[in-house]
Design brief:
Helix content of chain A: 25-40%
Shape of chain A: flat
CATH topology of the domain at 4-210 in chain A: Rossmann fold
Structural class of chain A: alpha/beta
CATH superfamily of the domain at 4-210 in chain A: NAD(P)-binding Rossmann-like Domain
CATH class of the domain at 4-210 in chain A: Alpha Beta
Distance between the termini of chain A: 36 Å
Oligomer: homodimer
Mean pLDDT of chain A: 92
Low-confidence stretches of chain A: 248-253
Strand content of chain A: 15-25%
Largest interface: A-B, 78 and 78 residues
């Protein structure tokens, strides 16, 4: 699972610092100092053309003079000198290098050229590169510190941090220290000329000391590879990502509703969901959640008990828990009896359990033990404002043994600041997640539950949930696409072609006849059977209903002839130069629910499938969900469960239940088609008409667009 | 504006503590100690039946013995003894009392009876009561501390806190001290037997030291009075409320879509919006926002400049700002030139301004000065991770004079923990809001902008924006309602009556004829002109389209006769016992957009008006907004601007623009009707058909329900 070429980064036998400096004001000194002070146990070598002696080690004037063992080089010399130094490393047999220096791609085209040259040399000598323009990496357990940051570095811990930003690394180390949690590994990726976030993921996850991985991401290098690797990692260890830059994502040219709605954020959300990566919205959440995941057992369900010594914070906690989809646990009668025996009569033995302001440390501990023993309780939030009659520190100390021995998660809302400092320190030392407010504690429990449910759904997803598409179906679509000779200026395929593609993949469409004159249209309608619908046949005009290009419910040949003329007139008025081939005639179908199913090709993550409320108001109602395509059945179910269009398929008021299974089937098939043929830049069925249960669906209006070139 | 009877609470000439204790382990000692240590400058009197001497003051054995001046009593004796003590206070001429003791309503019915007795005595002697079961109050500037909380109390500051929870008060005092901001006044309301949150609002706002009011609310005593008083206060000082207990709100019986959707939270949101109260979602936001509002000038617009020394946090900041509706400012060319002259070539002089990691304190200060001078910049966020080459403290000190002299708000994202402590202290001392993460700093700027925009909209709302309803219209509705003699079991009014009510208030409805047999229906349809719609006339069956009680587009007398029979059969099958009076016949209208407008009577806030996407999927789409009724025109505009139904009135794709003005008019009129006649428990127009601009609207389907009793 891990890439062996990356091993020297995390267990080097010897490290050489090229650019070590005797001047304490230089970064090259800081780097040398950190390596020595980190207590790294391998060989330490300093290289500087000036020579000398530094921190008890000789300074070699060239990497070529450095004695064995040395398998990792850290370069902190001017950018122009890096290619030569890399070449020396290669000749010296070093296969791993960290380029800490800046002055590369981030400075413009000259720097970019220099960066490419470095990569070329590295590839020639099979050197893996971290950076350039990065802070380096830290492993607190090995230990190893190849950064030049001011001490103190992070304390050893169980949260790993991988970052696209070096500045964030410095802030995180300092912040983690203040927040009382340690780091296991920290990797600053810099310009990623070689090693990127995906490469590091499995490598860092392989560390036995790392219990949770956190990512600060500004993008991905290869979307699908990231999803694949992250999926492997999240099966064993939780990954939380803060993805920034969401408002910078370029807008797509909107050829379809799906295309207009598929922003970069939809793609990232779909990718994180598929990969099992938890997405944090703020920097604070990233680490608040990481602490809970690193330190707590996972809950078996959503039922939370709240233990408090005052009413107000208990209500706040209940609000926060329920808004996050958790439930206030109902207690067994024996639990209530046991609580009442311990508490004064005015206390509440219901959830939230309010022990009243005079609650003693012993009451906190005993009530907590009782709550943890209730089989209807999956997790507990303890709320501890500065107690008026005792100390928060004493209360913490008394509760900690109970929390230690529990197999259910306990988080603490430790409210206040100065009066709770001793309690803060006790809880942190005992690895009990504590937060200043009930809302944060509730969010931590919600994340633990999300992780537990993700692992559970992964276990049962083994059954085959994929739609079967045969080779002959694939071949047929290939030949249809190959036979397209004339590519229109807007790349849209003729409706008949789109219908043929969908038919081939088992998606029901409505037979369609092309009438090239009023009388031909009327004849075709007569053969088809009334009532019929007419639609303009034009490859130049996309949103046909917008210009009066669609007429429904025509009952007679005369109405069809008049309708034909009206559509042609509307088209000419709206788009004088546009080509019109006549009108399509379709039999009018019975009523059904209308949904939209569409696909786009995302530049980062490949095929995406969208499902939601169909019709023309798609972009206004925004009742939609996205998944990566192809997708397993449970993701199709997720999309249905998370949109009103999907929920409504169960029936609502006088809308009869729709054929939900048939909708899921179309989702899976269309996703397959988009994934099999990425040259189909966009495909959209809007609406897909959904008939009552057992009566199937019909793709009423379809469109598809080829990618450019 | 303020209630003179509350003056003794905040400027007493003399305070008597009834229940002062010589025993340092008792709350009665803590209370005495706090009063003395608070440096309260008026007369201090201690009362305890045992007498003695306490903290240099004699202890009187009865309140009757206490010498003048004394105008505020704080009672901390057993609950049973309170009525007698209150009576003594009354006889002594004391008109203000704080009952700190518990043992009242919160303990059950006996306690509630005791509480009522206290109120009775207080009313007899004209004593205003704070509590019982409260922590008391603090004024840090007078100064005065009537709480028994462990020292230290809050430092003097400019944020007031009014709370329904005593425990939260203790936590807030401690937390504020740790977060480095002071409090002006703190009021714990307890059981609110007399004085409630609304009473205290104006009283606390009148304090010249208070710049922002924060509220921890578990409910309101009188919704409309709260809105009215809060509206007065927010004109001069910002009010931020944390309202908890949102998931406890009882569900209404859902007689209409509006009733089903109007939860307690919709009412609170509408009330806060009307009152200009900013609603915080978490305890943390409450005080993070309060600091910004207390310490910063308000921005003139939404354009924010971000100043940073690293890319990552700058991107995070831009994300957060844009997601909150703020804009990244575009700089004038002269600003960019000035920045470039100060910064290295690789730095970014665009927004976010990235000075690179080596940025010096002087560069921070100078760039900040340049940004503040740009007329296109309304506010600035400075991002300061621990700088590698200088100290955060030094940078803070250099920037503070620039921030001081600016008339634009500057907030700081001071990232890290231990390395930034000195900077934290500098900023706090200078009253510059600092946060650990860019997201929180962005939220603070958004709140400042919201406050500025609220004040600006208040200024221009002077023009008359109310709909005119004459006395004769009101009288006519009164007489219609008075003439209703038979109240049906479900309290629904006959459709003709509802139409008459709406017509009277100037809301267009569709003429409706009642046919009691198939032939009568056909005749009426013929007179009205085809096509027509039929609808079941029944007071027992509410959702008529659900049971096949509505048929549209009937073209001939025969179709009407068949339709009549079909509706009757459907009604009999669905509700065998239900009464049916025949069918209503309406002329079919041209197509239009469909919206819903409804009202309900909220038990806390009175009449509420709902606007949104109409049809039968109202509850599924939840595209709705609520306002208090009656409402000014700008609130109607707000509802339209914040729903898809409202936005769509401007036209969308092939949906032509609708008559927006006519919709606003109906909103104002229906709100007026609901407010004028609160006995109309629910009124609903669904759909209101909206024709193209200038062609008006028509209330197609209407219902109204009387309140019980």
């Amino acid at each position: 699972m891990t890439d062996t070429s990356l091993i020297p980064f995390f267990s080097p036998k010897g490290v050489a610092i090229i650019g070590a400096s005797l001047d304490p004001t230089k970064l090259g000194f800081g780097l040398s100092r950190n390596l020595v002070q980190s207590n790294y146990r391998g060989a330490i070598h300093f290289v500087n053309i000036k020579g000398g002696n530094l921190l008890g080690h000789p300074v070699h004037t060239s990497i070529m003079e450095v004695p064995e063992p040395v398998d990792l080089a850290v370069l902190l010399i001017p950018a122009e000198a890096i290619p030569q130094a890399l070449q020396d490393c290669g000749r010296r047999g070093i296969n791993a290098a960290i380029i800490a220096s800046g002055g590369f791609r981030e400075t413009g085209s000259e720097g970019a050229a220099l960066e490419s040259k470095c990569l070329e040399i590295a590839q020639k000598y099979r050197i893996r590169l971290l950076g350039p323009n990065c802070i380096g990496l830290i492993d607190t357990h090995l230990p190893l510190d190849t950064t030049f940051l001011s001490p103190p570095g992070p304390t050893p811990g169980d949260v790993a941090f991988i970052s696209h930003s070096g500045a964030i690394c410095a802030a995180v180390i300092d912040w983690a220290r203040g927040q009382g949690f340690g780091l296991s590994r920290l990797v600053s990726l810099g310009n990623q000329v070689d090693i990127n976030e995906t490469d590091m993921l499995a490598q860092v996850a392989a560390d036995p000391y790392t219990k949770v991985l956190t990512l600060y991401m500004e993008g991905v290098s290869n979307g699908r590879r990231f999803v694949e690797k992250a999926q492997e990692v999240t099966r064993s260890k939780p990954v939380i990502a803060l993805k920034v830059g969401r408002f910078e994502g370029g807008k797509r040219a909107a050829a379809s509703h799906t295309g207009a709605l598929a922003g970069e954020e939809s793609a990232y959300n779909a990718a994180f969901r598929r990969a099992g990566v938890i997405r944090a919205e703020t920097s604070e959440e990233l680490f608040e959640w990481a602490r809970a995941l690193a330190w707590c057992p996972l809950p078996k369900g959503r039922n939370v008990a709240v233990l408090t010594n005052s009413g107000g914070p208990g209500v706040t906690a209940a609000d926060a828990l329920e808004s996050l989809g958790l439930r206030m646990a109902s207690f067994q009668p024996s639990t209530q009896t046991a609580l009442r025996a311990l508490l004064p009569p005015a206390a509440s033995a219901d959830n939230p359990v309010d022990m009243l302001a005079a609650a003693t440390p012993q009451q906190y501990a005993n009530c907590l033990r009782i709550l943890l023993a209730d089989p209807g309780v999956d997790s507990v939030m303890v709320i501890l404002p500065p107690p008026p009659m005792s100390t928060a520190g004493g209360t913490a100390k008394t509760m900690i043994p109970v929390i230690y021995t529990a197999d259910k998660p306990v988080v603490v809302a430790l409210m206040g600041e100065r009066l709770i400092q001793e309690a803060v320190e006790h809880f942190r030392a005992a690895r009990v997640p504590e937060y200043r407010f009930p809302e944060q504690a509730a969010a931590a429990l919600a994340i633990l539950t999300q992780r537990a449910e993700m692992l559970a759904s992964g276990e049962k997803a083994d059954e085959s949930t994929k739609v079967q598409i045969s080779q002959s179906q694939i071949d047929k679509v290939s030949s249809i696409l190959d036979s397209i000779t004339t590519v229109r200026k807007n790349n849209f395929l003729p409706t008949e072609t789109v219908q043929a593609l969908l038919d081939t993949y088992g998606i029901p469409t409505l037979p369609l006849a092309l009438g090239k004159s009023p009388t031909e249209a009327a004849d075709l309608a007569h053969q088809m059977g009334f009532p019929v619908a007419l639609k303009l046949a034009s490859n130049d005009i996309t949103h046909k209903s917008d210009i009066g290009g669609v007429i429904l419910h025509l009952q007679t040949p005369e109405e069809v002839q008049n309708g034909y003329n009206r559509i042609m007139r509307n088209a000419r008025e709206a788009h004088p130069g546009a080509e019109s081939n006549g009108v399509y005639i379709q039999h009018m179908l019975p009523e059904g629910q209308e949904v939209i199913i569409g696909t786009v090709q995302d530049s980062q993550f490949g095929s995406l499938l969208m499902f939601g409320s169909g019709g023309i108001e798609v972009e206004g109602l925004k009742d939609i969900a996205f998944s990566l395509a192809p997708l397993p059945k449970d993701e199709a179910e997720w999309m249905l469960n998370n949109t009103w269009a999907g929920k409504k398929l169960a029936g609502y008021r006088n809308i009869p239940p729709g054929d939900r299974e048939a909708v899921v089937d179309v989702i899976l098939r269309l996703a397959h088609l988009a994934a099999d043929f990425p040259q189909l830049a966009e495909i959209e069925i809007n609406p897909l008409l959904v008939f009552p249960i057992g009566q199937g669906v019909c793709a009423l209006d379809v469109r598809a667009k080829l990618s450019n070139g």
